[in-house]
Structure formats: structure tokens, C-alpha cells
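Workshop exercise sheet. Pairs work together: one partner reads the sequence aloud, the other fills in the structure field after running the prediction. Swap roles for the next sheet.
Pair: D.N. / O.F.
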Amino acid sequence: MTARKWPERRLIELLAIEHPIVLSPMSRYGSVELAVSVCAAGGLGSLGCALLSPAEAATEVGRLRALTDRPFSMNFFCHRSPVADEAGEAAWLDRMMPYYREYGIAFDDTALRVEVEPFGETMCSLIEETRPAVVSFHMGMPELHFVDRIRAAGCLIMSSATTVEEAKCLDALGTDIIIAQGIEAGGHRGTFISDSPSSAIEAQLGTFALVPQIVDAVRAPVIAAGGIADGRGIAAAFALGAAGVQIGTAFLRCPEASISPPYRDALRDAGSGDAVLTNVFTGRVARALRNRLVMEKGAIAADAPGFPRAMHATMQLAIGAQKRGDVDFTPFWAGQASPLGRELPADVLTRALVREAFERFSALNAG
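Structure field:
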């Protein structure tokens, strides 16, 4: 089964990979081993660096390079850090305090606040040193002088769009590959044009409505992301003009994924309506499995501090409850196709996805 059989070859040729299947970065929930396994099966492995320090990222890249010589992607966030709002954060903490009291958890106000730094100088220098094949961004693009330096280092640039407007913006910036992130996708939304009506969460499109509209609007090859977990979804994405797919949740049940046993159990037991959009965990809308915090505080909380400041209250709660054997305040990120996941090694799953996609292509051609 060769790359020549894929109906759209732009992504394959651009990335020098065998199959146009991209592993979603998934921050700390992916792993070097997961990325290596996807690379070994001919896809593009990804290393989520958004929550890593520069030293940690450098170590992980070194480990990855020691295990594979194939192309891979390094992923970063480009969010805007929120303006400090002490009163809003205090009010948010007050909403969480009944749970702290219920579990006997002492909130430590002296603990370091959770910081998620947007892509900047230090990580750009790391890119210049490590020169991965692809640098991918979520929640927008970095400043243009960083983009110029990344290109000068010989890296391709990939970024996510949740609307056609965002895709056009990325295309105008010369982004090499655009990821069309449908509303079905797990984890944080990549939205970065927040003042547009199409960016309102209730207006955002599903993958199979979004992909053809973005394909028609941009020059760059488009990767479909969200709700894709088997060959049927891959074939459908290609039928709509995609040049590849990005898959995350389906890989979380692979043994190489860095998730806890409760997280793995929750994915195994998830039903078709259990993955919901919520901002209560981090302050930014993301798709995760429904739990007590979501049900009792409401999926979308208007008073949640901006990303990542909401986590100052929710992370201590989640950690404290976990120590008492309860994970019902812990975010388990998952997309709407989580029930389609399979417990297979990542290289085996990748090859199965390829085989299933070609079976669908053959069936469509025969028909």
C-alpha cells in the first residue's frame, strides 16, 4: 500500500511521509513513544510542547530524534494571556470552595499559579536549534518576526482554524498547511478571531461542513480534524477535499499514550453524548468528558477567568480530589468520536486506519 494510491498527494509530498495521517499533539497526554509509533507506520508524529518548559521540550525532542529519523511536528499555543482580574479569580475560587470543604482540601494561595506561556523567544530559539520538519500552532499564529525565523530554519508551518475566516487569515500569512478543526474535536478549541460572529461557539461548524468550505477558500492543503477515528471518517474527509486528517482521541487508548488508568477507563466507557464543550476547567472552551464539575457548574461558565487563570482554583481541587480517590473534577479531554477508539498499539492502529480508508476508497470506486 503506497502513498501513490492516496487520492490527494499534496500533504504526502510536502511532508515526505507515506500516509497523510497526523497525530494530534495533545500536550502532555501524547508521548514521545506515541509519536514515534505513528512515524514508524508512515504518518506524522507530533510532540505537544505547549505545557513543557524549554528544557523539557529540548529533552523530549532529543528522545524523539534518538528513536526515529522520520519527520515530526512540534506544537505550541499562541493564545493571548488574559489581563489579571483578582476580583474575578477570587469569585471563581468562591464557586469552587464548597468542593474544597467537602473533600477537606486546604486551598494554598501561595502555590504558583498555573502559567501557560504563548509561543515566544525561548521556544523560537529551540526551534532554530532543533529544526523539526513541521512547527504547528494552536489558537493562532505567533508574531511575524517569529514566523520568519521559523521559515528561515527550514520548517514548514501548520496552524488550526475553526472558521473559514480564520483559515483565510492563515492562508494570507502563507501558512503551509491549515488544520480545519471541527466542533467535534477533543481538547481546546483553536479559535483566535474571537470578535467574529462565526467564532461564537454556537455558530462554529462540524468538521464535514467546515472542511469543504475551507478547501474552497484557501490555497494551502487542508487537514481535517474532529470526529475522525476510523477509515470511514478518513475517506469522508478526502471526499470533501482534505489532503489529510489529524486524529487525537482515537490514539489516546493506545498503550503509548500518557494517560492515567481512570482516564483510560473513562474513554473506554464513554457514550456518544459524553464529550461536551466546556470552559470550567481552564477558562477556555474545550471538549472533555462530562463529569460532576461540568454538570454542577454548567458547561459554559460566563464568570470563568480567562485561560489559563481558571486553573488556579480548579487544578488544586482536581489534585486534592484525586488523592482521595475521586477524579470527578479532573478534565479528561475527548472528542465526539471517542466511542470509536480501539486499544491497539499506535503503529498497528495507524496501519489499520490506512487499510480501512483504502477499503472505503475501493468501495466508492466500485460503486
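Discussion prompt: The longest helix spans residues 346-366. What would you look at next?
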